[in-house]
Amino acid sequence: MKKAKSKFQKIKLLVPLALATLALAACSTNSSSSTTASTSSSQNTSAASTSQTKTNTADYFAAEDSDASYDASKAATISLSGSSAQSTGDGVSVSGSTVTISAAGTYVISGSSENVQIVVKAGDSDQVQIVLNGVTMTGTDAAILVEQAGKTTLTLADGSKNSISDSSNHSNTDADAAVFSSSDLTLNGSGSLTVDGKYETAIKSESTLRVTGGTYTINAAKHGLSADNALNIKDATIDVKATEDAIHADNDNDTSLGNLYIQSGTVTIDAGDDGLHASNTAVIDGGTIKVSNSTEALEGTNVTINGGELDFYATDDGINAASDVSGADIFIKITGGEIKVEVGQGDTDALDSNGDIIMSGGNLAITSTVSAFDFDGTATYTGGTITVNGETRTEITADGPGGGGFGGGAPGGQGGGPGGW
Asked: Residue 272: enclosing H or E segment and its boundaries?
């Protein structure tokens, strides 16, 4: 289990006398007490089990997030050429190598540049659409910097190929991404975009980042896609290679934020740290997600998987639920999906929850020579299938070093005894 990040450190209370007492009780219990343990498990996890299998996607996307249309005849244009740019239309001005967008509207960008920066300084309720139509931008700092807007939409024109990269030495270190927004940012369209975040992050929003279309190739010295409040993905193809987290939603100031949601699409990840990270809630409703390399493939305070085809490899824990926030609702919940989890050698767990594990559907295939499950709360298993190293499991028990709480029996069966003895 990973110890490096204090936010998700596991706190184990090892009280020898209490363990000895529990062990003695476990040895003396009969089938009646085993049933009681299973019932207790269901009661204790009921709060975590109330989330709907069918997610209301309106909570994550507005209708305009998927709208990549624009009227080219009414749009302002920005033509890039070397270290300069030219513009036509209202709401945009050029001064030296800085292009400033100051009003709501649509702005179509084309051409190649070096050290030209697109800066959005619009009203705090303005809707700004930036269309990338065959753009190559390289430079020292963020190529696209949204200082203020209500929402900025970055649209990839149909069939277009675009690329953006920054340098490893920003002069403006606050804007620490190749594409940086201080407000809501949406990525859509049907073109492609390659982003090389050499300084830290490739694409970052200090508010909410939504990706609703397009093909993305992301390389990052830190995080691939990052958002402070929420990061929501659907209908996109995303390939991320990141030194730290590939997909990163994290908020240090508000424990209700730092949420991750994936509805659909294809996401391929090679991460030096977490593949998918949320400081609060992570929900996966669908999509094809492959994490070929990570320390932990999927991490959040609570993790819900309702569907999708997930293939995870981690050198530490495959799916991890943890928090250092007092009273946090910590759980891993699986209601559907085809899920493969493989973990490496050492102190690793395929599923590791500092709270509960709940499974009511889906197919979970685990490859682990050490531990399939580790949990500090209780486990409830009422549906779906579980295999560990090719063998069917009929209950969820904590089988790693230091074991967990009460196990959950298979559908129609009785709950297991205390885990980890």
From this structure: none
Tokens encoding 148: 């203020």
Q: Model confidence at 332, in pLDDT bands (50, 70, 90)? A: very high
Using an 8 Å Cβ cutoff, are 352 and 321 in contact?
yes
Amino acid letter, 268: T
Query: pLDDT tens digits for 364-415?
Result: 999 999 999 999 999 999 999 999 999 999 999 998 655 555 556 554 443 3
Rounded to 5 degrees, what are φ and ψ at 250? -155, 130
Length of the chain: 421
Q: What confidence tens digit (pLDDT) does each residue in 136-171 have? A: 999 999 999 999 999 999 999 999 999 999 999 999
Q: Which of 239, 243, 209 is nearest to 226 (CA)?
A: 209
pLDDT of residue 41: 37
The model carries a pTM of 0.86
Q: Of 358, 311, 301, 369, nearest to 335 (Cα)?
A: 358
CA dist 242 and 224 (Å) reads 6
Coil/strand/helix, residue 207: coil
CB environment 228-262: b (16+ within 10 A), e (fewer): bbbbbbbbbbbbbbbbbbbbbbbbeeeeebbbbbb
Secondary structure class of 264 (helix, strand, coil)? coil
Q: How far apart are the first and last CA of the chain?
A: 19
* Residue 49 DSSP one-character state: G
What does the alpha-carbon distance between residue 287 and residue 163 come to, in Å, rounded to a whole number? 25
Q: Scan for tokens 């992301």, then name that residue.
A: 218
Closest by alpha carbon to 397, among 414, 417, 413? 417
Question: Alpha-carbon distance 144 to 141, whole Å?
Answer: 9
CB 264 within 8 A of CB 243: no
